[in-house]
What does this fold into?
Amino acid sequence: MGQKTHWPKQESRVRRRRSVESNGVALTRLVLVGLLLAGCSLFEGGNTNGGAVTPPPASVAGGDGKVVIQGIAYNPARVEVPAGQELVWTFADNGLTHTVTADDASFDSGRMTSGEFRRAFATPGEVAYHCEVHARMKGTVVVQ
Ligand SMILES: [Cu+2]
It folds into this structure.
């Protein structure tokens, strides 16, 4: 009996020590997780603020007499403008060189890296244009 009751006591002591140690580790992990969570929430807050300052979709928005040249593309590629009203192309592609050149050579902005190119169209119809620097850049003006 003596030996039988002696062993379980030792085991329970060992278990207590181990459980205390594991509790300590668990507490340390909880603190670390808490710090990580706090850091993540701060980081997310910064990201949200940064996104609000520079919303990419809004800067690309064109249409209704406006074309924004960005991302090696005319945005939008197909734009409508009333006859006689100026259409404005804004060069906003981080200094990249582009042109607004009519396929029929009726107009040409020349090579530009910033600023605006404006042109009014007197006759209703469609006018195709392209960039002389980038073959894949193509646009259409729909004069109404
Ligand atoms: Cu281009």
